[in-house]
Structure formats: C-alpha cells, structure tokens
Specification:
Length: 412
C-alpha cells in the first residue's frame, strides 16, 4: 500500500514539473492579432482599386523570428502593385501596432457582395492563414443602376388617350425589388391625366441584366394647346441589402395632332390640251393643329410647260380650318387627256417637327366637241351658216317635192 502511495506521489510531482516547464514555453510565444483596419473606397465598385489596411498587434512576447505577411488574392481580387509578401520584422508586445497596406484591383465582373480575401502570416516555421470570412471586402456599386432603355411615347391628340411605355434594365449586379414608377399630374397647368388606370406602376423584382416593360395610359384635355409638356417622374426601388434608392426625372409628353393638309385644284382657265391658262392651287388645313413655315414646290411634269417664272412658293403659316392658294400660268402640251400637276409641301407642325408631303393633282381635259356640248364654248359661225344652208336646202326640197306639185294639180 505504501508503494502505491509513493508511486502516485512521484507521478504527481512529475506531471507538475512538466506543466511548469511547458507554461513558460506557451507564455513566451507571440500572440499576433490581425485586423482589417479599413478599405478605401468603402464600398468599392467592380473595376476599381481598393486600398486595404491591415493592423497587426501582439499581445504576447516579442517574436524570435521576423513576421512575414503575405496577401493571397483570388478572384475577383488581384494585386495592383508591389509585392504580395511584406516583412514587418519583430512585432513587440503591448500597445505598439504595425499597419500593412495593399492596393488591390477588383475585377470588372465582380459580384456585388462582401467577399473574403486571405492573408497568410509566417514566423519561422509557424504559418497561419486568415480566412473563413475574417477579412471581408465590401464590393458594390454606389448607386444601383436602373437604366431606362427606351421610352415609347407617341404624340397624343387633344381629347384622345395615349400610351407611354418604359423599357427598363437592371445594370446592377444584384436583384432590384419593389420598383415603383410614379407620374405626377398634380400641376393644374398640365393638360394630362391618367386614363382608366392609376399614375403608378410597380415591378415586383428585376434580376441583374434583365429588362422589363411597363405602360401608362394617359389622356390629353380636349382644349389642350399643342406643345411639349413635362411630367415629373419618380422611380423608387430596393436592392438586395434593403437599401432604398430614389430617382427623380422629367418625362416629356407631346400633345398635338398630325396636321391634315389637303392640296387640290380650285379652278382652272385651261380645259383642253394645246392651250394655255391659269390654274389655281389651294392648300387646306383640315386638321385641328396649325402648320408653320409652309413651302411649295412644283415638281417636273411632261404634261405642261410652266409659264410662271418660278416653281417655288413660300406660303407661310396656315391655321387650323383655313386655306391658302397660289395661281400658276401653264401651257398644256398636245395630246394630254388628264393633266397631272405634281407638287411637294414642306412645313412644321405645332411642335416644330418637320413634315414633307407629295401630291399629284389631276385635272380632266376636254375636246372642243364636249366643251361646245356643255356650253362652255360657242360653236363656229361656219357651222351656223352650214346649218342654215342645209336647213334651207331641206325646205326647198320639200317645197319642190310636195307643195309645188299639189299647187299645180289644183290649178289644172
């Protein structure tokens, strides 16, 4: 029994001695602590260079070996300049700290999120790798980009409804949610209002790189003056982080109607070929919107020769429900049954949009026989005399044939 007690005591003394020897070894080993002190810019956008500042502190004794710090960049990171390894020497214990800086390039196609970057620390044969989300670099675009790819907004006639369609695309590299488009019609001077719908449209979400369309139905006031009207537009949306973004803009809406110009021949003094005369051309504005700066050109034609010294006429403005006319002197070539007068009109609508129209005006020509028949021209005096002679000859023939024999027979 005494041997067991003595053996146990010896074993305890040995273990305590071993622990006393081991304790100084552990306490004398440096206790390095690495912290990602800052990143600049924060957050960093894809394609930019970010400066990473790591702070090194030692809560243990001074290291026997130099401390070698090595950056281990993996996609989407790459070292922008300098060496991956930095020798910071022996790190003293206490309040002294060492700062290590690296300039790192972010790939242009990097995904928007907090991304881990690795750091390796070596002291002699001891190596430690800092990973497992110990150092996270915040990558994201400063402003989530919602691009308006196109706006289809046709001119809206007064009193008529119209559609405005937006095609939007998510240019950010993260999901956008609860995208709200709102048109503000509160200004009483705006002759526009929502038509059979609200002034707000919502897209629940839009994935990165995807696009979608939304349509507003609006109507113009019947008494609206043609012109360009600005409607305030507000766009709100959230990104995956829950951050809200608000964009304010102005939507331009054109109110007006496509002009309805009509060209025709009002009257003409020339009615048959191989004759000269005056043709009156009339331009009528049969629409509800004015036209401005109207110009008229006579185009080439094989049917007539222009006697008027110019083929160009400046007419100017024509109000709605009004007309303007021009006279041209021409000589109609021989053998023409239908006179063609081609002409071109160029003008601007109420919104200063240039418009061009071509017309081919037709005028039916007549023969002399038809003109005499319709009483437009008088018959020739030769024909009158001939008619009288024929009438007289017919009367004489009847006299000789019927009347004179009867008279002679009665006398006998």
């Amino acid at each position: 029994m005494k041997k067991v007690v003595v053996l146990t005591a010896v074993l305890l003394v040995f273990l305590l001695s071993a622990m006393m020897v081991e304790a100084p070894i552990i306490s004398n080993f440096p206790q390095l602590e690495f912290t990602l002190l800052s990143q600049s810019p924060d957050p960093v956008e894809p394609g930019q260079v970010v400066k990473l500042r790591f702070q090194v502190a030692n809560s243990g004794p001074v290291s026997d070996d130099d401390v070698i710090v090595k950056l281990k960049p993996q996609y989407p990171f790459s070292l922008y300049e300098g060496s991956e390894e930095r020798n910071i020497g022996k790190v003293r214990s206490g309040s002294d700290t060492v700062v290590v800086e690296y300039d790192v390039k972010i790939d242009e196609d990097a995904v928007e999120k907090e991304t881990q970057i690795e750091l390796e620390v070596r002291m002699g044969t001891n190596v430690r790798v800092y990973n497992n989300e110990e150092f996270l670099v915040d990558i994201q675009t400063h402003d989530a980009v919602l691009d308006i790819v196109s706006i289809d907004a046709k001119q809206i006639p007064p009193g008529q409804p119209g559609e405005i369609t937006f095609v939007v695309k998510n240019l950010a590299d993260s999901l956008l949610k609860d995208i709200r488009f709102k048109l503000d019609f509160s200004d009483e001077t705006l002759p526009l209002a929502p038509y059979q719908s609200s002034s707000e449209r919502i897209l629940n979400q839009l994935k990165s790189g995807f696009q979608d369309a939304l349509t507003f139905n609006i109507i113009a006031d019947p008494e609206a003056t043609p012109g360009l009207y600005k409607v305030p537009l507000t766009i709100k949306f959230n990104d995956e982080r829950g951050e809200n973004t608000t964009i304010t803009d102005v939507l331009a809406v054109q109110v007006g109607e496509i002009p309805k110009l009509r060209a025709h021949i009002k009257r003409s003094t020339v009615m048959q070929s191989s004759k000269e005369g005056t043709v009156t051309l009339e331009i009528a504005n049969a629409g509800t919107t004015d036209v401005k700066l109207l110009e008229l050109w006579l185009l080439l034609s094989e049917d007539y020769q222009l006697i008027t010294p110019t083929d160009y006429f400046y007419i100017g403005d024509i109000d709605a429900d009004d007309t303007e006319s021009e006279d041209i002197s021409i000589y109609v070539n021989g053998g023409v049954d239908t006179l063609h007068i081609p002409l071109r009109l160029q003008y601007y609508d109420a919104n200063n949009k240039p418009i061009q129209q071509d017309f081919d005006l037709e005028l039916e020509l007549f023969s002399s026989y038809k003109l005499r028949k319709y009483g437009v021209i008088e018959g020739s005096s030769i024909f009158s005399y001939l008619f009288i002679i024929i009438l007289g000859a017919g009367g004489y023939y009847l006299y000789r044939r019927y009347y004179k024999p009867r008279k002679q027979k009665k006398a006998s």
